[in-house]
Design a protein that fits this description.
Number of strands: 8
CATH architecture: 3-Layer(aba) Sandwich
Radius of gyration: 16 Å
Structural class: alpha+beta
CATH superfamily: Gcn5-related N-acetyltransferase (GNAT)
Distance between the termini: 26 Å
CATH class: Alpha Beta
Shape: globular
């Protein structure tokens, strides 16, 4: 498995990104039954996909098996423009705050642990990319069970509102903050032996 970072690409312009859209449809529509996202072409693409996004892809034998979308909150994004009802207090926004969304792994590649190798690689690579670009804050909408998992990794987790049921699942909006110690602890928790995107020199001096 390798991690690929896509940036500055538009839907329809990249083969791997098109595979990622199909993986998203398989996971969020076919598996999780989010019917509002169903598309005839089997591609889960929304108004927030575009060249402003960073796509973190796990690739194995030229097939996308894991995905995360990262969007700067200076642009339109899911929490602000669709799920604002999840926030009981103002959502942090700015060039140093990014949103994580559409985090998914191909079903057969998940493993039995809380975090399989694919999910771990995508998580750590996303953190490393942001860290290298001076970003330490993310907003996320996810199942509340992930709060304890991120606290275990060393994230500072702040609720933006109370959990709300959406598509038959509890969802909460959170603001999470991390630093280099968090990144180091996350690698240890997830069994990632070393840097994925960062060089050893950067990792040692950050």
């Amino acid at each position: 498995m390798e991690i690929r970072i896509l940036q500055g690409v538009r839907p329809g312009s990249d083969r791997l990104l098109e595979q990622a859209f199909r993986l998203r449809h398989r996971v969020f529509v076919d598996e999780k039954k989010w019917e509002d996202l169903r598309k005839r072409d089997g591609r889960e693409v929304d108004q927030f996909d575009g060249p402003q996004c960073i796509y973190v892809l796990a690739v194995e034998r030229n097939a996308v098996i894991g995905h995360m979308r990262m969007t700067p909150t200076t642009h339109p994004h899911l929490l602000a423009d669709v799920h604002a009802h999840l926030c009981a207090r103002p959502e942090p926004r700015g060039p140093d705050v990014w949103e994580w969304t559409r985090y998914c792994v191909q079903p057969l590649k998940r493993g039995r642990a809380k975090w399989g190798d694919v999910a771990a690689g995508v998580q750590v690579a996303a953190m490393e990319w942001l860290f290298m670009h001076g970003v330490r804050d993310v907003v996320v909408e996810y199942n509340p069970k992930f709060i304890d998992r991120h606290l275990e990794m060393g994230f500072e987790v702040n609720l933006l509102g109370l959990p709300v049921e959406m598509e038959g699942e509890q969802v909460v909006a959170v603001h999470m903050r991390f630093d280099f110690n968090t990144l180091y602890q996350t690698r240890a928790c997830l069994g990632v032996p070393g840097p994925i995107l960062m060089t050893e020199c950067i990792a040692a001096t950050a």
